[in-house]
Amino acid sequence: MTIDDVLGLGHVMPVIVIDDASKAVPLAKTLLANDIRTIEITLRTSAALDSIAAIADQCPDMVVGAGTILSPELALASASAGARFVVSPGSTEAVIKGCQDADIPLLPGASTVSEMMALAERGFDVIKFFPAMAAGGPKFIKSLASPLPHLTFCPTGGITEATAPDWLSLPNVPCLGGSWIAPATLINDGDWDRIGAHAKAASLL
């Protein structure tokens, strides 16, 4: 599976911070039941890798990825846990090589034109734009369509359900990352009904 394949599964990919691995499978089942087929579990908690492993094992229809990849070691640990892709907030040679060595697709992060051009030179044509709102918002990405027509972007960071359509209206944005679908408070509370409602609305964007 390529990053293009992952982003082609839906216009919105939930970005998840999870504190309790026992909530991972119910979360994935709720998202699948509401037409969300991919998920990024950020490696910001001690439960993240166990959550990825549980989803990979018990919800094979959910394409689970790992976010906040900051080192080659995290790339390898994510692949070993069952992640099918990884996402980095920025890009370094070590992270890129680590993902290649782990044989796992990488959605690399960038926030400047120079970083994007450097990634394109390395063969990446799909880039995470982060932090999306703080780094320039939809107008910035819209302005890149002419000078960088070969690149597409998955913006993440500060996007809400209300602002998501502004991004998805751009021809170079096939998918975006959204933390509003399943915030940690709702996951911790096991509020699958509200998460399901958010997911259904996101699937229709």
From TrEMBL:
Its EC number is 4.1.2.14, 4.1.3.16. GO terms for molecular function: (R,S)-4-hydroxy-2-oxoglutarate aldolase activity; 2-dehydro-3-deoxy-phosphogluconate aldolase activity. It comes from the Bacteria. The keyword Iron-sulfur does not apply. Pfam families: Aldolase (PF01081). This is KHG/KDPG aldolase. The keyword Lyase applies. Homotrimer.
